[in-house]
Amino acid sequence: MLTIHAAPLVLPVGAAAVVDGAVAVDGDRIAALGPYGEVVAAHPAARVRRWPGLIAPGLRQDRARELLTRCYHPDPREAGALGELPLWGEDFERLATTMDATRRAGSVRRGLQRMLRHGTTHVAGPFGADDPALRAAVSRSGLVRVAALPGEPPLVREGVPDLDPFAAGGDLARTAHGPLTAGGRADLAVFDVPDEAALYGGGPRPCVATVLAGRLVHRVR
After folding, report:
1. Which residue in 62, 93, 111, 148 could disulfide with 73, CB within 3.0 to 4.6 Å?
2. Do residues 31 and 185 make contact, with C-beta atoms less than 8 angstroms apart?
């Protein structure tokens, strides 16, 4: 069924922002993008989902491998003892000495789910044959695997990795997986913020929905 995602602002990247915009999604593809009135007129039978804030391309998580292999993502039942944030560094190393395959797999699964909650649709590897369980988990998640950017170290970088791709300091053009275009894959992120500037800096940028290959895989209820 064709679905129209509408918001006060659509930021396609590489093209002008669309005020009161909409993205029509048919299967895993973008069927149309433009002003809400025009998109609805062209697809009158489509289901409409209205979102607050803005629609942008899904984001790229460049430190995905670190987040999945060098961080522990606590189970909600462990929050009292371990907190809710990913454990890194010495805290992770202490856990890793006693972590079995089942517990590690649970952490990886939760890490992937939490990436989706931050608008991530693409993850930078490598996710190679050296770790088949990790590669399989990423494949099952539906997240798109991409190569590390040219000139960047593939595995380890400075500082604590963050689930929020914008925490690395890039703008939307740098952080998005690519532009939203008619005929392109329908990977979207919806943020409850008024404009692009509000995506940057230290303020809140709540991701209220993530669409992965046309499927709504995260939404804030």
Report:
1. 111
2. no
DSSP letter assigned to residue 176: B
% helix, strand, coil for the chain, step of 5: 30, 30, 40
Q: Cβ neighbours of residue 157 under 8 Å, at least 6 residues apart?
A: 63, 66
Amino acid identity for residue 55 in this structure: I
Q: Render each residue's pLDDT in the chain as its tens digit; 221 residues.
A: 899 999 999 999 999 999 999 999 999 999 999 999 999 999 999 999 999 999 999 999 999 999 999 999 999 999 999 999 999 999 999 999 999 999 999 999 999 999 999 999 999 988 876 788 899 999 999 999 998 665 554 434 567 899 999 998 899 999 999 999 999 999 999 999 999 999 998 778 899 999 999 999 999 97
